[in-house]
User: What shape does this take?
Amino acid sequence: MSARTFISTRIRVLQTGLIVAVSLVSFATLTLPISLRSTSQSLTVGDVAQVTLQAPRDIEYVSDIRTEEARKAAESAVQPVYSTPDSAITRQQIERLRTAMQYITSVRANPNFTVDERKSNLVALSDVRLKLETVDYVLGISDSRWEIVQSEALRVLESVMRRAVYEDRVESTQAGISSSVSLTLNEQQAGLVTELVAAFIIPNSFYSEELTNAARQAARDAVKPVVQTYKIGETIVPAGEVITPADEEAFQLLGMIHPGQRWEDMLGASAIIILSAVLVPLYFYRRRRLVVMNDPRSLLVIAIIFIAFLIGARLFTDRTLAPYGYPVQAAGLLLATLFGLEVGLVISIPLCLLAAYGLSNTFDLAPYYMLSSLIGLLALGPARRFWGFLRAGIAIALSGMAVLIAYRLPFFPPDWLGIVQFLGIVAFSGFAAASITLLLQYLFAQILGLTTSLQLLDISRPDSPLLQFFLRSAPGTYQHSLQVANLAEQAAEKIGADPLLTRVGAQFHDIGKALNPTFFIENQIPGSVNTHHDIDPEEVAATIIRHVTDGIQLARKHRLPRRLHDFILEHHGTLITRYQYNQAMEAAGNDVTKVDIEKFRYPGPRPTSRETALLMLADATEARARAERPDDDDNIRKLVHSVIDTVQKFNQLDDTLLTLRDLNLITESFVTTLRGTYHPRIQYPNAKVPDQDSTMLTARKEK
Assistant: This one.
């Protein structure tokens, strides 16, 4: 089985598992309130008591629920127990530090070493990684000061390691080393002591599960059984209070629960859930080009959002106004913001149907949920501005009011107070949905690394720190990235890909070059171009390829969304640096056995989405167009076809779901964009233009 087939199989298994899991949770959510209809009062944990529930007789019993709650509380109050600090570990680390410092002393004292050799020997230390400036300082200080540093380092390490160093607190312990260093040392000596000691701080006290469990068990055993007593007529649960497991236990012992179940309700819930479980995967099967369908994390987020909003909606079923104020529309808005309009639309339909199913007001609540959600989604637009969310909230409120006028007012005419209450709760629902969406899309983007339009717009602003660093460090590459972004964005609009994501990804795809800008020709001064002919081709290729990993380093440092990491990693796919490879082949006499082609290959992976594939094509096209400067449409078209053919030849588009129609549209888009860039220009004569003073002087003479 190929890797691609294996991954595809895993995705299908995950999709099937999520559908089954969501269906089962939805079934439980729907049937729990339905199963209790045969009783006059719902007495299930989590439900709200509609009336005050009183004990029908006297009772005294040992409450297993309350006893267990008390024991769990006592158990949870026990702190984790750790072993005592291991002195053997401390002695071992002190000896290792002493050995390392003896080695440093020997390097310092060896007259046969040059300065560079001393530095390289100290840098190569395995037990402690010294900074370059620290190495210079170590080699420069006097023997007496070095002796002081050694003694202080041993003293500080012993002092720190005498105390307990837990596994999860090593970094905090290292951070506090400087406070233990003697104040008689100067700042550089103290810094050297801190750096030496920090390398040898390791855990010496470990979590003891056995001791912790014993302490917890002792705490549980110390709790005596809880005896609960009720007198006849005593209140068990006041009206409006949530029923707890301890209350349910009392109901069972008092004989107040009479379980019953209607098979019709179970069958109806099963039918609506099966329809929903068929609708969603069937739609996405027809839209297999959606990237979200091949991303396990995105699928899991969709499932969690669906379940969370469905459960939330079912918690408000026992109120008159609360179901209409519950912002179920926020689920569709949030999914549209995170994954696109199609995902929001197709998930909102079953969510709205299930949220309103089986209730007494289903026939007006279901269209209220669904129509307001769909209209809100369409009003949201691309979700690139705050106004878009506000517009969606207004649309939800107005459409919700219209639905209630159509579906409720003719059949359940309320009084004027009721009308005002409904209008207020519907308006609240609309603005709550917009507010929740704004908040959650930001949290999901920050915590899970998902990408939103607002986030993309924010980081693509010219004054963003990373783009400013890019512009100042590598202006040529920055301009190249803007040209590539323009090419890719226009093509993305043509084939129905995400133009904003494509543009922002293209802006950052070569950000790694900013760490070594002068190595790349676009950043070199005209007239002094360095083609690196005097450097080994393998070394040149490694430096060029490193801009990919350097880009990922910068992306992580500046917390770019993970989706943008794909553009940095995939814009060269698994292609090779052809120019350097050809140089190496020429030097080897075209003997392929003497040249390792893998040393010239980009790490990849190949593009996995239409957006990153567009970037690969636009990047190569812009680079070749800049070099060849085609002068007419035919040459531009030949250039674009050549780039696409080359990329296809090396199977770089196999994982992108691009069709032949897409490639034709991309070609035409590239040609149109490049035509505007490389159109013919008028050659102005190189004539000297008289300045204003000489012109005025000539005019005066003529007068």
User: Anything to note?
Assistant: Residues 34-41, 687-703 have pLDDT under 50 and may be disordered. The beta strands are 53-54, 59-62, 227-230, 235-237. The CA atoms of residues 15 and 299 lie 7 Å apart. The radius of gyration is 35 Å.
